Amino acid sequence: MLQNESDIKGYAHELNQSIMVAYLEGFQKSQIKDKNAWIYDCQEVLRNYVLSRPGWKLDKENKEEVVYKNKYSIDTHIILNESPGLMMIRIAKEIAKTEMGEDKNQEDINEIIGCVDKEDWMIPFVREKT
Hints:
mainly alpha, 8% strand
């Protein structure tokens, strides 16, 4: 068990709040521009969010990946059958695992990811008339 569990919970909460703000702001701008564009716009919004965090840079060889301290990378494009909301949660887990899990064992990394999973995730969606 991690010694600083309250720090991890605080980190997970802060990460949850900040990535959701970026996601929701991007979602609103995308809906104004084009209601069908979010599936593509979310990739750029979330990539820019990761790049705004200390220690992250764009991979020089693959523009869809961001690298932390030149060691760990996150794929920031939407994967097969993944929704923008699931992409946000996946990226949040990857950020937490990378930033907080550096030099930790797998049990500690699982606990970090568990703290992120326990956060309230509000994901906007659009219903269209059929």
